[in-house]
Amino acid sequence: MPKARHVRHFSTTAHSKWMRLALETYVTLPLTMALLLGAIWAFTFHFIDIERHAARAGAADSVQELADTYEAQVSRNLAGIEQTLSVVAYAVERKGAAGALQELNSHGLLPSGLVFTVSIADAQGRIVARNPAARALSVATQPYFRVHRDTPGQDVRVGETQADDAAGDPRLHFTRRINDADGEFAGIVIMEVDPGYFTAGYERRRQGEQGVLALVGNDGVVRALRTGDKISWGDQIDVRAEVGAPAIHSWDGVSRYATARQLQGFPLLALAGLSEREQLAQFEQRRRNSLMEAGVASAVLVVLASLAWYWAWQGARARRRIRRANETYAAASEANMDAFFVLQGERDRKGAVTDFRIVTTNSRAEKLTGLSREQLQSMMLSAWLPQARHNGIFAELERIMCKGGVYEAELHNTMPQLHARWLHWQVVAVADGVVAIVRDISERKLAEERIVHMAHHDTLTGLPNRSLIDDRLRQAILHGERNDREVAVAFIDLDSFKLVNDGLGHTAGDELLKEVASRMVGCVRRHDTVGRFGGDEFVLVLPEQHDSESALMVLLDKIREAVIQPVVLDGQPVQVSCSIGVAMYPRDGSDPDTLLMNADAAMYRAKDTGKNNVQFYTQEMNASLEEKLALMEGLRTALHGEQFLVQYQPKVRLETGRVFGVEALLRWRHPERGMMPPDQFIPLAEESGAIVAIGEWVLLTACRQGRAWQDMGLHPITISVNVSPRQFDDARLVARVRRALEISGLDPKWLELEVTESLIMRDLQQSVAKMRELKAMGISLSIDDFGTGYSSLAALKSFPISSLKIDKSFVRDLDTNSDDQAIARAIISLSHQLQLRVIAEGVETTQQRSFLHESGCHDMQGYLFSRPVAPELIQGMLEGQADAEMPEWSMA
Ligand SMILES: Nc1nc2c(ncn2[C@@H]2O[C@H](COP(=O)(O)O[C@H]3[C@@H](O)[C@H](n4cnc5c(=O)[nH]c(N)nc54)O[C@@H]3COP(=O)(O)O)[C@@H](O)[C@H]2O)c(=O)[nH]1
What cellular component terms from Gene Ontology apply here (predicted)? Predict the structure, then answer.
């Protein structure tokens, strides 16, 4: 469908284009001129044709008339000649040749001797009489004499034109036979005529230079012929062709209208001819004139039309340029993202600009204003946008109109007539007004705002991020400085967040962070800032403090209370507390970095002092921070400095009281601090990554020790080694374990690795896969600190483990705390259901031991039996156990 529309649109456009082209003068003018030229030349040729026909008809008539006249004249001449010959013949027959001519001449019956010579020849051909007189000659040899002598008739015969014997002049001979009284041949009468006599009627005025009057014999031999002044004879002409209506003939290379008439009683034809060229000369002249006139008219027409065409073409080009410019402008303005308002300035009598009239707009303007083009056009600016008089727009329009230049600005739009939140204005001067180009930049502004927001806010919680916290803190410090006020910076870290994140997954962790963030925001004042520093760390910037820690404590406790409220994640309620460290400006620092660092140190102190509490910064805290850094540095060299040692805590069967295994526990013999428990350095080793190398050393040391005890002939026991998250994540864990077993020679079945529940739950699939790999080597796996994580029963079933260890936090108050008792029983029952061994750690009292034993717990570990001790002491225990009776309590 769109294609069809396009085609129709195209054909309409093409049609209108051709229509427009057809109406262009520079197109119609040459066509009109061609028509005019055609008409001129058609008329000219038509006129010439008519003239030619008329000239030809005139020539034919003229030659007809000439022939008629000539025929009559020659006929008269011939009749006279015939009569003269008859009279002479009669006179000779009657009176004899001697006196006949004289007598006739005396009576004036003979023609003029100037033209005619009349001779009488006797029967022998001798000229016996002649007028005018001349020397006697004989014509006996002449053909005409012989014809008459031999032919009895007395008809006049016409001879050929030939030279006269006497004078040598050309003469046409007419002859007649003379008979004697007996009718016998007595001679002939000869009348010689100058041939010019028969063409004397030639009029040069009428017949021109090439006309013809001729007397031609029926035999085609010319007797007399005149063309111009020239008289000729003797030529042969196919005279039969000339008999009849006048026609064009050419016997001597000259085209003539000619016609011939048969002369009555004589074998002669009177031929009249008029030269075609001469007859048509006038016509030709007129034809040339006509052609010249038409040519001149055409040339003038062409020149004038060319000038007019050039002028029209230039005009059309100019119009086309203007039209294209208009079309381009219209298309550009329609396709433009900008709204156009062409505004004409209205001036008062003094020339001051009073208002602006909207002259034209585009469709974008309609969209921007919600008004149609018709509504907008002719509208006065102040009527439509009265606010423009007060918000500076009118003043800018006026300034640009009067002084020129360009005004460009981005404005936050408050005018409801324009449907955009943000506008970009560009105003340029035009004749008598301005063009305002207005673009809706709301989307761009929104995107910019979003980018700025994203750059300064945490994407998860929407809280200010580290950079904005820093900025707010800087402003709060400046404000505090000016107004002599304190600023509190509180560093908040969620306790046990890692457990939630690792146990329930990142999505649950994110949900928890969002919920906690929103609760914190709900606790503070409008001008306070709650920001997320990263991970589970939050920062409060609390300006306008009045040197009252108790008031601040109320707020911070409120936050603590809000955070600790349970959050339902994945359908189960989860509780996290938070540790808060506070630093005060100006007491604890005068710049954001120092304040944040000190608040962080205070927060660590809060963690160290049991979590879920608030600590205000003291200088001593920084000392512990420095201490931490020093410990980290010491850890780097401790391994090579052989400062580590491993102690072993026995694991005992509750049923028999026999040691069946030991847990390897690391100690650091610090060069300055003495023996250090792992709680003080394992987290640092974990943080710095040193735990991987240290853990590998513990593993090898423990395996070697286990093998050493066996080599001493002692009953083999299980050696349990702790694996931290960083160690477990190490891609080479399996290889390291295999290496330790190989180096030590310990059978894998005597090695047990203890991993925590939360460690496995971080990435259940991968953890289980790795555990299976270890189990496939023959190693046992045990879940340490069970009950503190969030593993589901379904997940637990998939773990390739052999035992669970009840965390000592549930054992500690077993005697008094019914909740811990319930938990311990539940874990024991769960182990039984999953067919796992269960061991309780931290057993310090006989009551705890009895409760566990009665509840079905298999094994125990704790100070009640033994603290972690040197390997030599374990050796003693094992040796003693070999032949000892079962302990007393185990019998109970
Ligand atoms: N990744 C590694 N972690 C290790 C290694 N060595 C130790 N640790 C971990 O350090 C934590 C603290 O250990 P420690 O200070 O040695 O404490 C252990 C015992 O001494 C203590 N314990 C044992 N019985 C009792 C008791 O009756 N009361 C009481 N208050 N404490 C007792 O418990 C710790 C053993 O706990 P657990 O590991 O959960 O079995 C500790 O978490 C160790 O895991 C190491 O080489 N690598």
Answer: plasma membrane
